[in-house]
Amino acid sequence: MSSSLNNLENFSNEVRLRDGAVLRMRALRQADREALIALFNRCSPETRRFRFLRMVTSLPDSLIDKLVAVDGVRHVALVITQSEGTDEKIVAVGRYVVEEKHPEVAEVSFLVEDSLQRRGIGTILLDRLAEIAREHGITHFSADVLADNRLMLSVFRKAGYALSSNISYGVTHIEFSILHSEIAEARRVSREQKGV
Fold this sequence. Notes:
The protein has 196 residues and is of the alpha+beta class. The protein has a single domain, classed as Gcn5-related N-acetyltransferase (GNAT) (Aminopeptidase).
């Protein structure tokens, strides 16, 4: 397991997508407020609906405050960035938040810019978040996914974890153990061999 995950404040590494593109993954910072808003604004209405489970047209300050209030243990967020000259823009964010009543369970969510969907970013974020969560004694992830969000449901199914799910009012609630997945472990070993 990467020792860089122990200190999330300084966590940063390259990630290689399935198509060979190289981006950077790092921990979300308090200073990323404007970059998160810019990501949200670049996403389509459907992508926003899938992330927030309802139609959301803007991010109020109170929600941005919650999104950047990470502590590195109970609320962890990782971003994928793309360089634009000397600047970087956030193109994806994945996070987990520990459930109050069940400290061994954390809810995960993802937002990936439309132009970069279907390129493996969700899976990369899921695997890294699971590594960090295990270090903090979290054993299960949960997620609420709109039933018509086939892309995100596919990410969870293909990740290799044993899922249990139920559907209520058009929302699929998924829960799965993150303690062991041969498929996820094979992806981690492959990434280490490639040096990303």
